[in-house]
Amino acid sequence: MYIENKLIMKYISYWLLWMFIIISIMIIVGGLTRLTDSGLSITQWELFTGILPPFNETKWNMYFELYKETSEYKLQNNFMILADFKVIFWWEFIHRFLGRLIGIFYLLPLVFFTIKLGFKKTKNLFIIFLLICFQGFIGWYMVSSGLINRVDVSHYRLSLHLVLAFVILSLILLNFLKFNKNLVSDKKIKYMLPGIFLLLIFLQISIGAFVSGMDAGKIYNTWPLMGMNYFPDDNFVESLFNLSVFDDPSLVQFIHRNLAYIIFLFYLLISFYVYKNKFTVFYKTIYAIGCLLFIQILLGIFTLISGAQIFISSMHQISSIFLVSSSVYFLYQNSKINLQPLD
User: Fold this and answer.
1) Helix, strand, coil proportions of the chain in percent (round to 5)?
2) What is the pLDDT of residue 47?
3) What are residue 215's phi and psi, to 5 degrees?
4) For 31-84, what is each residue's pLDDT tens digit?
5) What is the mean pLDDT of residues 268-292?
6) What is the 3 state secondary structure string of 55-92?
7) In the chain, domain spans
């Protein structure tokens, strides 16, 4: 029984690694779906009938006619012909297809491993499955916000959708480390610095979704100043304290920029603490996070300067996956809870 459990946990480790990869791809495709303004191309939630794409012109025209009823088409894309529509359709279709694939590839092995190990040892994995199901609902909730009287989805719902994706990715990585028998360190960093750092990263991802959702990256395409000033000249500092601050593109971009600086300073604080106290076990992780943070900030600057050019913007989001993953590993290393699986 002991050897069998060891083998099963090895398989669980492989399965979670595969899920981590496919969800990462899902996040990348989701970002490209947003960057290409493709998210509203499919106007209906078809859980089962939407598994297959259109195979004939009649079906294509049906989807196109439904899209023509949206405000996005009427106010922004009324120049489109069927060939143009097919381009944005495929991005959204692939995004939804990956969502279905994730659900199936997660549920079936989960049932098998639960039968083998019991619910007690796999209950954390069921929490992730519930979040995956909830993510599907949030995805449609987001799309529905852009179908009436808007040309884009709600940036609040977009932010929720993206942050939840990263939460799922992080939980899968934590469980992968658990089942892969990665040891936690005996030495711990005080003050929950890794946890605060990860929370700041998640907050930045949320604000980044606001920037993307309002196309705020296409204004003030200069750095380090926003135009001719540090603060956007179309606003007042007092506006930062208004409830409408997250509905203003220039203020959201200002917050996104400055939160990046705060995260970088906080990283320097953690690095100083680690090296001063000679926590050698964290040296490689701190170095990796520093490199990824530098790349992320650099890509953010390039994204701004380029006016949110699609390739650079996508690279900026891809690098965030690596930054979050390294920060989650840092948190795991510093965990005070024994995350090792029961044999």
Assistant:
1) 75, 0, 25
2) 73
3) 55, 35
4) 999 999 898 888 888 777 678 888 899 999 999 999 998 888 988 888 999 999
5) 94
6) CCHHHHHHHHHHHHCCHHHHHCCCCCCHHHHHHHHHHH
7) 1-182, 185-343
